[in-house]
Amino acid sequence: MTQKYGPKTTADEVLSGIDLKGKRFLITGVSSGIGLETTRSLVSHGASVVGAVRNLAKAEPATASVCDAAPQGGGSLELINLNLASLQSVRACADKLLADGQPFDSIIANAGVMATPFGRTIDGFEVQFGTNHLGHFALINQIEPLLADNGRLVVLSSLAHRGADIDLDDLNFEQQAYDPWVAYSRSKTANSLFAVEFDRRHRDRGIRAASVMPGNSLTELPRHFSPEDLQGLLKTVDAARTEAGLPPKELKEIPQAAATSVWAAVVADKDEIGGRYLEDCAIAPINDTPNPFADGVRSYALDANKAKQLWAKSEKLIRAAS
């Protein structure tokens, strides 16, 4: 794959010269941050985007500028209600999309929560696992028939996956003390494993799935942190990288952080990225150094057997909650 992009590439640069008229995308979490920029970039290049949001009243003004500019590029944006922490809301969203019946060329599972205080979803799941993984798992599997042959699924993971593998025996922190960072790390590992198994199950239709590390950027995601806590975290990351002989991890501007999602959904060779973990508009190398802030992907996040086990347990949890 020709490498002409990098950490500083923006979503618009990835899509330079590409006409997406007639292409349709579903993106979760489009009312702010990376999801909003991903949507803006795709729409401005002619794409039709269905944006799933938890709060329509908040999302409508937040996305107004995208909607206003859409006709210039020939694109469009429509919003649909989706609360990933509620299986009832997930089912209602999926039913509405299925009733509409229009196919998607790509689905981008972008929404998520990070390092939340301990809590449970409406259905009793630990909040981060329930929202980041199970909500997307339930939605995408229900609407999978709408994903066009040769389509793509892009699931946002994170560098944080390096902090913890999933615990298949205690997915919901019922047997151990809760740690917000461990829970976040596990949910991001789960995101990667979901992409691995979805890719295996659907590649016979030409559909390929990949997970993405968008890059650290100042969005609303760390809303549970004080500014001091956030600065402390960034210093910890830099110190750990320095100790390992790595350069500091530069924060990305939001247009740069949206680039890898767009690259994976539109530009990259789908058969090369299928089942892989991506960062900086490239396939990330496997890197099993224990440093949680190193680059690359831990091999446990791409483990095919673990991905199958997580899939089976996820199905069981959702059935039990239904």
TrEMBL record:
<dbReference type="Pfam" id="PF00106">
    <property type="entry name" value="adh_short"/>
</dbReference>
<keyword id="KW-0560">Oxidoreductase</keyword>
<dbReference type="GO" id="GO:0016491">
    <property type="term" value="F:oxidoreductase activity"/>
</dbReference>
<dbReference type="InterPro" id="IPR002347">
    <property type="entry name" value="SDR_fam"/>
</dbReference>
<dbReference type="InterPro" id="IPR036291">
    <property type="entry name" value="NAD(P)-bd_dom_sf"/>
</dbReference>
<protein>
    <recommendedName>
        <fullName>Probable oxidoreductase</fullName>
    </recommendedName>
</protein>
<comment type="similarity">
    <text>Belongs to the short-chain dehydrogenases/reductases (SDR) family.</text>
</comment>
